[in-house]
Amino acid sequence: MNHEQRTPFHAIEYACTADIVPPQELNIQVVIRIQSLVILFLQSITAERPSIMGLSMICRSKENSHGTRSFFGEDEPLFLSHLTYSRPFSNKKFTKAFVRVWMVLRISYKLLEEGKHATQRELFYRLLSEAPNYFRCQKQVNDAIQDVVAVVKCSRYSLGILASSRGSVTGRLLIQEPDGAVLDCTNTGSAGQVITGDLNCIQNWRFQSDARYILVVEKDAIFQRLQEDKFFYSVPCIIITAKGYPDLASRIFLHQLRCTFPMFPIVALVDWNPAGLAILCTYKFGSVRMGLETSTYVCDVKWLGLRSRDIQLVSKESFIPLTAKDRQLATSLLSSKMLQNKKAYQEELTHMLEFGGRIEIEALYAHGYSFLGKYIAQKIVERDYI
């Protein structure tokens, strides 16, 4: 890796982020960036000594990630610097990944020319039919999209690609769409209001709310229980779930809520295990893997539960032994840059490893289905979150 090397589209700031190109400029800026790459590639293969140009891209690794605390002591998101590396075609390890990037660039260029968008899933099926030897699973498409973002340095939405969304919202929130239609999130049914994957649509939504809190829930089943119990009437809140690790659309939606209602505390309810904390940290700090796109959309999410002090509420029969994967994730989190200044989080992880078990939110149902709402309400009222 070369600390001095820069992509053709680097910014001046130390923190490197993917540009979000306004819709009215998409067919100019992004198309020019793709055309510039094609020209550089053609020049390399038609030179006096022809060669296949390597793809210079922002390095998405732990070594290139940074996390700090602000002057006021607040947690700052993980971000990537401008450190780049070149992915060579000649290296057999990268040959297929090299080709995948160009194939996604080709489709993206076509989408922008036609003024259309496609979801990541739609891209997968198109690429599967066109190049089955290069694309055999959704992950290969997702990885190629992130590589394209790292090369061209603009967001996937700016490339004509819609983020797949698993998120839902319910509670005391009115969403006004650009056409004037209003969605009342108190009347959504147990599944809640689906959060669209159209990032431009999310950013054009207008919100109204008389809530006082935003509750982020790890699991869809817990989300549905709270919606069915109309928890948001007893505790005025907006409830969001991404059904596990948060997708980009859900993170942007939460960020939009934070910008609209900056005084609303955001608290998270996750399982007491390393994966639960990792999910919370993704909302709070972002992720290295998507560091170019998500550092802008982090929110100051507090850890409501489950935590070690809640062990006493759960029967021993509900304890689940930590797996080798759990322990590996806990060790990784303990050594991560984002938690170096989070002593309380480190203590929770250490307790998990010493305890040797994990606890799921559903274990609280041993006290009856209504206990979950009482547990959350008490925690919120007492400000028992970290």
From TrEMBL:
InterPro entries: Spo11/TopoVI_A (IPR002815), Spo11/TopoVI_A_N (IPR013049), Spo11/TopoVI_A_sf (IPR036078), TOPRIM_Topo6A/Spo11 (IPR034136), WH-like_DNA-bd_sf (IPR036388). The active site is at Y125. It catalyses: ATP-dependent breakage, passage and rejoining of double-stranded DNA. It is an enzyme of class 5 (isomerase). Its cofactor is Mg(2+). Pfam families: TOP6A-Spo11_Toprim, TP6A_N. Signal peptide: none annotated. The keyword DNA-binding applies. Keywords: DNA-binding, Isomerase, Magnesium, Metal-binding, Topoisomerase. GO terms for cellular component: nuclear chromosome. It comes from the Eukaryota. GO terms for molecular function: ATP binding; DNA binding; DNA topoisomerase type II (double strand cut, ATP-hydrolyzing) activity; metal ion binding. Residues 97-161 form the Spo11/DNA topoisomerase VI subunit A N-terminal domain. GO terms for biological process: meiotic DNA double-strand break formation; meiotic DNA double-strand break processing; reciprocal meiotic recombination. The keyword Acetylation does not apply. Residues 213-380 form the Topoisomerase 6 subunit A/Spo11 TOPRIM domain. Its EC number is 5.6.2.2. Belongs to the TOP6A family. This is DNA topoisomerase (ATP-hydrolyzing).
